[in-house]
């Protein structure tokens, strides 16, 4: 094969590698160089498209970018190949556009097709539109249906069925996930916070009170300066300063809880839980219960409302005297649209008293059992079914 050839269009002598192969030619190469061949094909294509009344982009000459570089046609810039996303459908394995341009193109596409990126994501994840979410928020009076304290902003859905439930605030939405949507754990946490559960009774029997430790103990304990076996560890001083307990106290408490969470009794106890107002220690909780109670603001009313919410017994549709319908999620009932965002406190307090005395989750318990007895039965049955054994002697995190 020849080493070089003259192109019949541009008249330039170029290397044979600049020509396509052509069996019909004596030398086995095309009559025109690759650049001229591309221009001829482009002119023919655009002529046919114009005859059909279609508009085409301007012809762009083939680029010869340096090794490891790539040209982005949107920003018209040559960038490093790392600046481009991956695309397995392309021969090069990279996207046609750099990452910033790709993000812009994607956003413009979503806005053109779906109105906005948020509307696209709502339809993709939950099957609802942005307008439907706005209507749901208006039905709720703009308030989170669980805590009745913060504005409703986050779509909550059932992770089993995928169905959208209601619009919640950020903290309530996250707390449901920490409790894994288990209403019995939330009710146990409500009793735990009010110091009327099994954990408080155990401490009452052991130390003479439902809580122990706290900053006051550091100031009043005459043995504070005594050197003990555990004082060589920094954790000892941290526990004493923050919770008013020692390493020995923490290990003793975890043993008394048989290594399990003092709230749900179903998971390993890992974190020391304390009253943020007094600093006294209530128990050692698992990660989910400890974090979930914190996100719910350590508030029993919110926990009981959350339990009923998960069970589908909190938010109901009622018929008004004029024949229309509206939402109802408090006792006593009130029209959410008639209450301003900062006016929910009296309704919330009244609802808390109602649920504390008669939690709806246990209205179907039957058999004359108390809520605590029902919970104990469920916890034992669940532990047996899972084959999970207690974890005695585990270290509690501070």
UniProtKB/TrEMBL annotation:
Q: Which domain of life is it from?
A: Bacteria
Where does the UniProt annotation place the signal sequence?
A: none
From the UniProt record, which GO molecular function terms apply? endonuclease activity
Q: Where is the composition biased (Basic and acidic residues)?
A: 216-229, 345-358
**Segments for region (Disordered):** 206-229, 340-364
Keyword annotations for this protein, in alphabetical order, are: Endonuclease, Hydrolase, Nuclease
Respond yes or no to whether keyword Nuclease is given for this record.
yes
Q: Under what name is this protein listed?
A: Endonuclease VII domain-containing protein
Record Pfam families:
Endonuclease_7
Q: Which InterPro entries match?
A: Endonuclease_7, Endonuclease_7_sf, His-Me_finger_sf
Gene3D superfamilies referenced in this protein's UniProt entry, alphabetically: His-Me finger endonucleases
At the highest ranks, the source species' classification is: Bacteria, Bacillati, Actinomycetota, Actinomycetes, Streptosporangiales
